[in-house]
Specification:
The complex is a heterodimer of chains A (364) and B (300).
Chain A (H helix, E strand, L loop, with lengths): L3 E10 L2 E11 L4 E5 L6 H9 L6 E6 L2 E2 L10 E4 L11 H11 L4 H14 L15 H13 L5 E5 L7 H18 L2 E6 L2 H7 L2 E6 L2 E6 L1 H6 L4 H6 L6 E10 L2 E6 L5 E3 L15 E6 L4 E2 L8 E12 L3 E8 L2 E8 L9 E6 L5 E4 L7
Parallel strand pairs in A: 3-8, 3-9, 6-7, 7-8
Antiparallel strand pairs in A: 1-2, 1-4, 4-5, 9-10, 11-12, 11-14, 12-13, 14-20, 15-19, 16-17, 16-19, 17-18
Chain B lengths: L1 H48 L3 H6 L12 H8 L11 H31 L5 H13 L6 H11 L5 H25 L4 H8 L4 H9 L4 H17 L2 H6 L7 H11 L6 H31 L6
Classes of the chains: A alpha+beta (364), B mainly alpha (300).
Chain lengths: 364, 300
């Protein structure tokens, strides 16, 4: 039984297609992050799961029960919003029990739930305050509390941290992670912040233009991006995509970029399909953190590139190198001294590379 | 060298001080002139209403009354006590109250509802509905007189307070809707979404979530509608006559129908009485009026 199952879901606003044939499944207790640039449809998808938006095609199942036409309140879900959406005229207590009161839960049960949740979230001292008298972090906690008292099957989070300042965001991120570890409730979480997605999710679905690009574990998203969009979207700075061709001769495959005679051997690469590789136009993908300034293992590929630019960011520096007029970024500890405008010896970790078809932009 | 620069700065400082002082006094001067200009008619009205006819004939507009003589106020409010031809404001004052209270209430309430629907329960074509409502704001009073007279006739409520309530409610809806729509646009729709997930319905969300935060705009709307309806003369004089007339119409009749002598003191007292309720509303709710018009939004 899947806690949440979405089948062939499509949604248009007028003539604009917002979601196209979305298929998604979540197992009990998982933490799914919907990640994508703004306007990719992730919030619309969340609103559809909540029942706040109608569906044009397809179905949403919660616990194997088709809820496509069920009212939000009857879907056994709870949602936390970006602006927290605390009712301004009610105090914290009234905010938290509003839903239970609507559901005609008995007074004793309401009090019991309120006490349990407010203690758990450490807002029990704030019960009589109005939302306007709370700090950002406290509002966030009350908003989560309002969701918790309902004991839902699925928690929906709509960019809950983007209104907080950087420091508080990291703190609240950890609290949400802890919360999930303790409660083990299924979560669907929308964000455009890849660090949030990576650190929170057990699964990440990356979306672009209303289509899920890749739905996988954070490790696979990072190490084996399924197309150039995912490769580019995840990582900071993002993956270097070097344009060039494959060369196959006597069972040895190598990568050559235009106008260069450097052949990078990629025999160890795990191709999806090992045919028609010769002369194929590809993107050679390597992350800045997989380029080293000294040899770390035997298979590392040695190459000489000219350093053009250095960006110092405290604990590390980002260097830009020139590889046959294509920019290649690398991330080094800030203690390493590299001269600009000079050729520097670099080492590519070839076990960490990705290759993409230049035409379809899919992983090969 | 440095000393020289220093002393010239000193001079500049002095100069700017004098300029600022002059500008400040000039500003006060202009403000006082304007204040006098605006207070002058009120002064004349109050002073004249407290004079006897004898004093009015002998003195000028500005002369101070000999004493606090409220006779003309009593005449304006309650009449002289003889039968025919004696018009006084009391019954018409209550007519106006009976007209203005329900008309303000209904137009405000309907406007709030409409603003709520137009912002939080968007539907296909809602933009057109709002556009047509906006047109309503620009339709002049005179343009709706004939169709409205016909409507009242068909409904059988012409020449009645109820008829006037209907006219003012309908004519006020475009304005009240505009006020509330612009206010509710600034309130995050996520509030409505959260309430829907919590299981609140259309009316519950309106009464429990939105209305409690609407105080500033409610006050603005009430002041606006109250002033418009209380001060209206055209609708009142067109759709009512005789005993059903509101106070502004009665005031007009009173001033124009004086037979022999023009009793300026009674006329002035009547005019002040007719204007007092709006004054009270402004004094009580004035600060909300400015606040509501400028801020418009409630945060957090």
């Amino acid at each position: 039984m899947k806690t949440l199952k979405i089948e062939e879901l499509s949604k248009n606003f007028g003539s604009t297609e917002v979601l196209r044939k979305i298929n998604l499944e979540i197992d009990e207790g998982n933490f799914l992050v919907l990640l994508g640039p703004s306007g990719c449809g992730k919030s619309t998808l969340l609103n559809i799961i909540a029942g706040l938006e109608t569906i044009n095609e397809g179905n949403v199942h919660i616990d194997d029960y088709n809820v496509s036409k069920v009212e939000p309140k009857d879907r056994n879900i709870a949602m936390v919003f970006q602006s927290y959406a605390l009712y301004p005229s009610m105090n914290v207590r009234e905010n938290m029990i509003f839903g239970l009161k609507q559901a005609k839960v008995s007074k004793e049960k309401i009090e019991e739930q309120l006490e349990k949740v407010s203690k758990f979230l450490q807002v029990d001292a704030l019960l009589e305050r109005k939302p306007s008298q709370l700090s950002g972090g406290q509002r966030q906690r009350v908003a989560i509390g309002r969701a918790l008292v309902r004991e839902p099957r699925i928690f929906l989070f709509d960019e809950p941290l983007s209104n907080l300042d950087a420091k508080l965001r990291v703190e609240m991120r950890r609290e949400i992670k802890k919360l999930h570890q303790q409660l083990k409730t299924t979560v669907v979480y929308v964000t455009h912040d890849q660090t949030e997605a990576m650190s929170l999710g057990t699964n990440i679905a990356i979306m672009n233009h209303g289509v899920i690009q890749q739905n996988d574990t954070p490790e696979n998203i990072y190490n084996k991006p399924s197309n150039t969009f995912v490769a580019d979207f995840i990582g900071s700075p993002s993956m270097n995509l070097i344009k060039g061709n494959l060369k196959e001769s006597s069972n040895k495959v190598s990568f050559v970029t235009h106008g260069s005679n450097i052949e990078i051997p990629i025999n160890g690469y795990d191709f999806k399909e090992k045919s028609n590789l010769d002369n194929k136009e590809v993107f050679f993908g390597i992350r800045p953190e997989h380029i080293f300034f000294k040899k770390s293992n035997e298979e590392d590929f040695e190459i000489n590139l000219r350093a053009d630019l250095s960006e110092y960011i405290g604990h590390e520096q980002i260097m830009t190198f020139n590889f046959e007029n294509q920019e290649v970024l690398a991330k080094f500890p800030s203690t390493v001294k590299i001269d600009l405008s000079k050729n520097t010896k670099l080492f590519f970790d070839l076990t960490q590379i990705s290759l993409f078809d230049a035409k379809t932009e899919e992983r090969i | 060298m440095q000393d020289k620069a220093h002393s010239s700065y000193k001079q500049l400082e002095q100069k700017s001080k004098y300029t600022n002082m002059f500008l400040r006094w000039f500003l006060y001067f202009v403000l006082v002139i304007f204040a006098l200009y605006f207070i002058f008619p009120l002064y004349v009205m109050v002073v004249t209403s407290l004079k006897t006819m004898e004093e009015i004939r002998q003195g000028t507009l500005l002369t101070w009354p000999s004493g606090l003589n409220f006779d003309s106020w009593l005449v304006a409010w309650g009449g002289r006590g003889y039968g025919a031809g004696d018009t006084f404001l009391k019954p018409y004052f209550w007519n106006s109250i009976k007209m203005v209270v329900p008309a303000v209430f209904f137009s405000t309430f309907i406007g709030a509802m409409a603003g709520y629907v137009l912002t939080k329960w968007r539907f296909k074509g809602d933009k057109w509905v709002f556009l047509f409502l906006l047109f309503g704001c620009f339709i002049p009073y005179q343009a709706i007189l004939l169709p409205m007279a016909r409507t009242l006739g068909v409904l059988g409520i012409s020449n009645s307070v109820i008829g006037l309530v209907l006219v003012h409610t309908v004519y006020g809806i475009p304005f009240t809707t505009l006020f509330f729509r612009n206010f509710y646009v600034s309130i995050p729709s996520e509030l409505v979404k959260a309430a829907r997930i919590d299981g609140a319905g259309f009316f519950k969300i309106f009464f429990k979530i939105l209305l409690p935060v609407s105080t500033p705009i409610i006050v603005v709307t009430i002041i606006w509608q109250f002033t418009q309806i209380w001060n209206d003369f055209l609708f009142g004089s067109t759709f009512s006559f005789g005993e059903a007339a509101p106070i502004q119409v009665a005031l007009n009749n009173m001033v124009l129908s004086s037979t022999s002598v023009k009793e300026y003191n009674v006329d002035m007292a009547s005019a002040i009485i007719a204007g007092i309720p709006t004054l009270i509303v402004y004094v009580l709710a004035g600060k909300y009026f400015i606040r509501g018009l400028t801020s418009g939004a409630v945060k957090g």
